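Lab channel / #folding
Pinned by the channel admin:
"Please post every new chain as: sequence first, then the structure tokens as a reply. Keep commentary short and put observations after the output so the thread stays searchable."

First post following the new format, from NK:
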Amino acid sequence: MEFLLSDPTFAMACEQFHRVASFLGLPEKTREIIKWPQRSLTVSFPVKMDNGTIRMFVGYRVQHHLALGPTKGGIRFDPDVTLGEISALAMWMSWKCALVGLPFGGAKGGVACKPSEMSKKELEGLTRRYTQELIPFIGPQKDIPAPDIGTNEQIMAWMMDTYSMQVGYTAPGVVTGKPVTIGGSLGRREATGRGVAFLVKKVSEILKMPNPLRIIVQGFGNVGSVSVRQLVEQGAVLIGVSDLSGALYNPKGINCAHLCAYKEKTGMLAGFPEADPIDGFDLLCQRCDVLIPAAKERVITKKNAEKLQCRILAEGANGPTTPEADKILEERKDIFVIPDILCNSGGVIVSYFEWVQDMQSYFWSEREVFDALYRILSATLHSIMKFSHERKVSTRIAALSLGIKKVAEAKEMRGVFP
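Reply from TO:
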């Protein structure tokens, strides 16, 4: 398994883990048991393309640990997917689920592909073939996939249908993030973004920050767009935004409704007439109250950490801040970091609610979903801040400590199977 360490994202996740394990005083044997993924699956499969050719794809599914229950984690369709990246994301999901008190271990999956260049028919064929390969390893009591980058409700519907056809009965609990009509939960689509917005508002109140909050968001997909819309509805001002097509900046404010309409029409942010183009690196370093990295891993680095001019860094993405950048931010002490395993946990929390509803065949109102979500986020934020204050460590170390400690205790109580 050492080859995984050659992947920079997995190496980063391990560096975070070992720093916290040393802080907690975990024995070496415990570290080894809970660091490495328990199961790693690599599959290759053919898909018939619209032009009649057959194309081979490579996919992965990693289950990090099973000490607390079945595993849980998203499916990513992205050309940069690697086994190392998926393993790192599964590890972070383990600490996240433990931190917020969910009865899950962490998992993650993905296929190396570019969905924007595939037809709906090709995507369906890819999804069903990939799911077929996963069937021995997934299930409502084994491993429950969910949407991630490049996937959505439709992908989850195809996965559920493929699994159900194989087992001979409808099994809505095999995936979460499905359409509501086939067992999805109200509020699941917006859960991650609304969780980010809730935590930003909560922290800004704790820090007694004046309104309106000035927001910059990197990544305007589901998480970034929902969190911004929520914050703008509460009086915040969006001044900077980016996606794969480019970055935009307007210190006087960007009309969020106009921006969303433009993105819906064109599929991109580039060319939006009410803001000026700006380099993506420079956007992160503009003065603002809240910076929300909501795209991919390792975007806050030692190259830009010293240049950040935000008061709150709200990590909507997984692993956006490198360990080197973390050390700089800890020394600065002027930026409050809402760590990723808390900040973007709204998605997995509401996925848990969806799984519970599917298992019981009893569905909740949207108000019930979000009331329960906000209670968990609020309590977890309080626990992290209390730990951080009492132990005099960063919020990231506090969050990881609470999650890793729970997994380590569960592994210790269950013992090592002969």
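NK: The chain is about 45% helix and 15% strand.
TO: also worth noting, The longest helix spans residues 366-391.
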